[in-house]
Amino acid sequence: MKWVNMKLLADGYVHRKDLPWASLQSMAWARVGRSIDVTDNEIILPGNVAAFPALPGTYAFTQPDDFGRVKAFKQGDVQLMAQDIQAFEAKNWQGAFFCVTGTSILTRTATAAVLTYGAIPADMAADDDETVMAKRYPDAMIKALLVEGATFMQDFEQVEVYTKQFNQAIDEANSNSAWQRQTPGRAPNIMGGP
């Protein structure tokens, strides 16, 4: 869905034409990027880790600017498992664990890493702009925008309604993506699809 159509549709939902949709979209797209589990926004990023001075014996992989959430984190041939920061720090576990904190992904080994993450969709500036996510998941994108619009208007009843609709759209997208990956004869859309 093109940005101009998304704004017109959002105006129709809230019955107002004065909301700053362009300012609200960054928050809306971040909501989508943190929630959706599809291959269309998946990025694989190799990189090095650097010493993390706040925790001796810990190394940090810096998150990219469009980071939404970790899908996988690997060092060498080892797939690391997620751990919360308290357990990561308190137990001082070595080996196959990582945690996300601030703008870093922490690990206990100095080996080069590969991060697979869900990216936050890019903002759309011009009316004719259209992202892959807006094209393939317009319902999730518009509902995220409506959540932010209702929050901006401080219409908390509508925030609840749009949040529920957003969660339903995300659940549907995630279920369809999982079905595609698991169903024989259905090829997954690797790295952005056809």
Structural features, described:
The protein has 194 residues and is α+β, with helices and mostly antiparallel strands. The chain has two domains: 3-40 and 120-192, no CATH class; 49-111, no CATH class. 42% of the residues lie in helices and 21% in strands. It is built from six helices and nine strands; from the N terminus they run H-H-E-E-E-E-E-E-H-E-E-E-H-H-H. The chain has helices at 3-14, 21-35, 85-91, 132-136, 138-153, 156-182; strands at residues 42-47, 50-51, 59-62, 67-75, 78-79, 81-82, 97-101, 104-107, 113-119. Strands 2-3-8-7-6 form a five-stranded mixed beta sheet, with no helix packed on it. A four-stranded antiparallel beta sheet has the order 1-9-4-5. A hairpin with a 2-residue loop joins strand 7 and strand 8 (104-107). Helix 1 crosses helix 5 (138-153), helix 2 (21-35) packs across helix 5 and helix 5 (138-153) runs antiparallel to helix 6. The longest helix has 27 residues, at 156-182. The protein is elongated and about 55 Å long. The chain starts with a helix and ends in a 12-residue tail after the last helix. Mean pLDDT is 89; it is low at 189-194.
